[in-house]
């Protein structure tokens, strides 16, 4: 996901999760744990793959009354 453009990082992450879930359907898991690959893939993408502020307009990131130079 690091190689994708900023505007494409979320769609690429979603594609990775969907592909991983589809592949995991063909792997044998103990009964009752079929949900585990989907949850782990979502956790990895949400926690590490895509930054929280990605894709938001600059006006939404900078609070009103502050300039971009004041924000660290």
Q: How would you sum up this structure, described in words?
A:
- With 72 residues, the protein is mainly α.
- It has 3 helices and no strands.
- The chain is 47% helix and 0% strand.
Question: What key attributes describe this structure?
Answer:
47% helix, mainly alpha, elongated
Largest sheet: none
Q: Write down the secondary-structure element order.
A: HHH
Catalogue the unreliable spans: none
Helix count equals 3
Spatial separation of the terminal alpha carbons: 25 Å
State the share of residues found in helices, binned by percent. Answer: 40-55%
Rg calculated over all Cα atoms:
17 Å
Could you say which overall geometry the principal axes of the C-alpha atoms support? elongated
The chain-level structural class is mainly alpha
Q: Tell me, rounded to a whole number, the average pLDDT.
A: 76
**Count of DSSP E strands?**
0
Proportion of strand residues: under 5%
